[in-house]
Specification:
The complex is a heterodimer of chains A (596) and B (236). Chain A is α+β, with helices and mostly antiparallel strands and 596 residues long. Helix content of chain A is 32%, strand content 10%. Chain A contains 20 helices and 16 strands. A three-stranded mixed β-sheet of chain A has the order 2-1-9, with no helix packed on it. Chain B has one domain. In chain B, 49% of the residues lie in helices and 0% in strands. In chain B, helix 5 runs antiparallel to helix 8 (215-228), helix 6 packs across helix 7 (189-206) and helix 6 (163-178) packs parallel to helix 8. Classes of the chains: A alpha+beta (596), B mainly alpha (236). Chains A and B meet through helix 1 and helix 3 of A and helix 2 and helix 6 of B.
């Protein structure tokens, strides 16, 4: 809405409409307005959770030597050398008097009551750490710049750890107590195998039969050695990976716990205060809420998309970059995420295929600016090239997690960037066991289009953003084949599709619609889509509908055609499109009714 | 007792005992006869352009003096327990904004709830602006003219406001809320708002119990309400 000063300017005889429009197109409100069109369309809002066992630090209370409660941070499924606590909380039930289970109620029993733990045991199995969320200089030998102290007196106003992480019983937390394994700052650990058979729990054993029962009263059986562990015991493994949590007891959260995110409870609890809604931009929030650790990164993923789009529109870049651009923007939390945390998302079943750590990530950690600390939430830095597989919004975590399956991703492309929708025909849905939906009666009308689109995303794992390189994961792999029962083994089944497998080989999941598209990857999807005439037509349609405040109709076709021509001729520049739209009769006519 | 039992369960027992009803054969229904013909209007309907709610929010933030949303929330709510505003969080969907916590997309059409919610915010703005701009502080000092947010004019110290005096002051509000001079508005707009102002002033002078606003202040508050409810404000 114009201000009184702007209204006064309109009245001046020398008012220049074109100049005013040009100036308005240079203001942040323009980029904000345009960004909203695509954020609404794609719904890239932070209503997601990112759960990664290696990065989630839970917190449980034990009774300290003096009878007072002590918080201890730990990771779910952390490998430990002690059989009493391997894969469990680092203090066993006999020591604490409580059966700690991650994200669940403690196991209670009549004979077991919480009891003070000795200082000796506490010191043996836990350690005090000055973590990144409390200390700006957490990488130093002796961190001093504590949040809110004179050493770090001007923390970023958007960086707000919840009070329960900052103070305990009214006193400031100066260091946190962490299980010793989690506190490890090693970069590389070692594969560990216990080389023993599965051990029964107390509950599974008959009364009085204590054979094989592990000491300490542990609740769950000991973790079973995986085939890779028995074959590669002692081999080095990167502590930044998901694999490290499962294989290496000497791997932890890294220096200052920077590979982990804190939570203030045993179920994760709260970590930071930030808005649910940032509809008016950062720092202009409509609310403030304590949020869980699992919402922290999705919030910043969403902001990354906003920054990417705003840069696209403010800089009047070629709009095709919305899909093809390799650039992005990161702040401190995203630098932490892309630099370290995202690596903890891999690898599980991929290990069987020889990928111990993501080898071709969509955002290469080496491209992350080194001068951003995790607490720098308001400082955004440009990254010119995320890596060879980067493709605009399509390879951002917010898109890949919001649209978790290959089909959902393909459908989003089809709907949002080509303005096409899937309309099933009138074919009857006859019973069929045909796995190929491109030919199955009743399905093919939509899936003949959808499956090839989905295939572009076959190399990005579902509900994840782990990239599967063709070297280890060919579209048709002879390493995976159906067994005598017509099944694929566990690791193969996770990544290859038993419906498109035989006794010799199997097809990568989601790739059957088009093996060529699968190898083209999302970057190929971007390249192919922007080359279609529908891409420009759709972009124009989106913008016109938003500015007119209504869906376009066939009556608008001449306007859309002329605007599309102008848009393409300008090199896909949105400002040329918007300028032409604002000068059109259709726009001027849209709201010309005046109430008395 | 027996009679009651028979009354209650008799029909049920009889129904269970009777044979199942015979299958009713399908019968072709007679063809529908057209009673009249009407031409379908297939012309596209052009709705008024809806300005995105973010525009209104930013406008309100500016009108409240360029405050942050949470500060506006605190100010709109006030400390008088009038409950003229709650919290932004309560209004996100009602304002037409997307709320993806619950997967609610942006409302693409103006609807009554949206307008009513903005009106509520507008009424809060008007009331707080009267308090801020027109009423003197505890020491009897009026807000300096250059610090007034909405009512950026002086009121006559004595006597009634005549039509010309009203028109000049109304123009300030018209520009603020509707974005153009009142001289360009339909010719009877100023007159109609002046009549509204006069009626409110008159009624408030007779009000019992007395309003918390003086009659002229209540009159200007009503003019303000009229503008924040005006279709041109909502469909700018």
């Amino acid at each position: 809405m114009p201000t009184r000063q702007e209204v006064a300017a309109f009245e001046r005889p020398d008012f220049d409409w074109d100049e005013w429009v040009d100036r308005a197109l240079g203001e942040p409100a323009y980029a904000d307005r345009m960004t909203r069109i695509y954020m609404d369309l794609l719904r890239l809002e932070p209503n997601l959770n990112f759960a990664s066992a290696p990065s989630d630090l839970l917190r449980h209370e034990v009774v300290g030597p003096d009878g007072k409660p002590v918080w201890v941070y730990y990771r779910e499924n952390q490998r430990r050398m002690r059989p009493e606590t391997d894969g469990e909380f680092c203090l066993d039930p006999d020591e604490t008097g409580m059966g700690v289970r991650p994200r669940q109620q403690d196991v209670q029993s009549e004979t077991r009551k919480p009891k003070p733990i000795s200082q000796k045991l506490l010191d043996a199995y836990t350690v005090l750490v000055k973590p990144w969320w409390l200390y700006r200089d957490y990488l130093g030998a002796n961190p001093q710049a504590r949040f809110g102290s004179s050493g770090w007196g001007d923390p970023d106003p958007g960086y707000k750890p919840v009070e329960s992480l900052l103070a305990d019983d009214g006193k400031p937390v100066l260091a946190v107590r962490v299980c010793r394994e989690e506190a490890s700052s090693l970069a590389m650990g070692h594969v560990f195998a216990r080389r023993m058979t599965r051990v029964r729990t107390k509950a599974a054993a008959p009364p009085g039969d204590n054979r094989d029962e592990p000491a300490g009263g542990r609740i769950r059986p000991l973790p079973v050695d995986k085939p890779y562990a028995t074959k590669h015991q002692g081999d080095e493994v990167s502590c930044a990976t998901k694999m490290a949590l499962e294989y290496a007891p000497d791997c932890g959260c890294g220096p200052g716990l920077e590979r982990c995110l804190p939570g203030d409870a045993n179920n994760g609890g709260s970590a930071f205060t930030f808005p649910n809604h940032s509809l008016l931009g950062e720092g202009v929030s409509l609310d403030e809420a304590k949020q869980s650790q699992q919402r922290w990164f999705p919030y910043w993923w969403s902001r990354e998309a906003v920054h990417f789009l705003e840069d696209l529109f403010a800089g009047d870049r070629d709009f095709r970059e919305v899909l093809t651009g390799k650039q992005t923007f990161v702040n401190g939390p995203l630098a932490q995420f892309y630099g370290t945390i995202q690596r903890s998302n891999c690898c599980g079943p991929e290990v069987t295929f020889g990928m111990l750590e993501e080898s071709e990530p969509l955002f290469e950690p080496s491209r992350v600016p080194q001068d951003l600390a995790p607490q720098d939430v308001s400082t955004w830095k440009s990254v010119g090239d995320r890596g060879p597989h980067a493709a605009g919004l399509l390879t951002m975590p917010i898109f890949l997690e919001k649209y978790a399956s290959a089909r959902a991703r393909g459908a989003a492309l089809y709907n949002d960037f080509l303005c096409k929708s899937f309309a099933p025909g009138a074919q009857p849905l006859a019973p069929s066991t045909e796995p190929n939906l491109m030919i199955r009666p009743g399905c093919r009308a939509c899936h003949a289009e959808l499956e090839p689109m989905a295939a572009y995303f076959a190399r990005v794992e579902a509900a994840s953003f782990v990239f599967l390189p063709s070297a280890q994961f060919p579209v048709r792999s002879t390493a995976c084949k159906l067994d005598a029962n017509g099944r694929l083994n566990g690791a193969c089944n996770a990544l290859y599709d038993a419906a498109f497998a035989d006794s010799h080989s199997a097809t990568l999941r989601s790739a059957y619609g088009s093996p060529e598209h699968a190898d083209a990857t999302p970057a190929g999807a971007a390249h192919d889509l922007v080359a279609t005439p529908e891409f420009a037509q759709c972009a124009v349609q989106r913008v016109v509908a938003s500015f007119l405040g209504r869906p376009t109709t066939p009556d608008d076709d001449p306007l859309l055609a002329s605007l599309t021509q102008r848009f393409v001729r300008s090199g896909y520049r949105m400002k040329a499109l918007v300028r032409a739209l604002l000068q059109s009769d259709a726009y001027a006519r849209t709201n010309d009714e005046r109430a008395p | 007792m027996r009679a009651t039992w028979l009354l209650a369960f008799g029909p049920m027992a009889a129904a269970c005992a009777s044979p199942p009803p015979a299958r009713v054969p399908a019968q072709a229904s007679p063809p529908l006869v057209a009673e009249s013909e009407a031409l379908a209007d297939t012309a596209p309907k052009h709705d008024l352009r809806l300005v995105p709610p973010e525009v209104y929010l930013r406008t309100y933030l500016a009108l409240f003096g360029g405050l942050a949303p949470l500060d506006v929330q605190a100010k709109a709510r006030g400390a008088d327990r009038a409950q003229i505003f709650d919290a932004w969080d309560d209004y996100v969907s009602a304002l037409g904004l997307p709320d993806y916590r619950f997967d609610i997309p942006r409302q693409t059409r103006t609807q009554a709830l949206m307008i009513a919610t903005f009106e509520r915010l507008g009424v809060a703005l008007c009331d707080r602006a009267v308090e801020h701009d027109l009423e003197a502080d505890a020491f009897g000092t009026p807000t300096p003219a250059n610090e007034r947010l909405i009512f950026a004019f002086d009121l006559p110290k004595e006597g009634e406001l005549d039509a010309a005096g009203f028109a000049a002051r109304f123009d300030v509000l018209h520009r603020t809320f509707l974005g153009y001079p009142s001289a360009l508005a339909p010719p009877d707009r100023v007159r109609r708002f002046y009549r509204l102002y006069q009626e409110i002033v008159l009624n408030h002078a007779k009000a019992d119990p007395r309003s918390r606003f003086s009659p002229p202040h209540a009159g200007w508050a009503a003019v303000c309400y009229g503008l924040v409810r005006h279709p041109e404000f909502h469909l700018y």
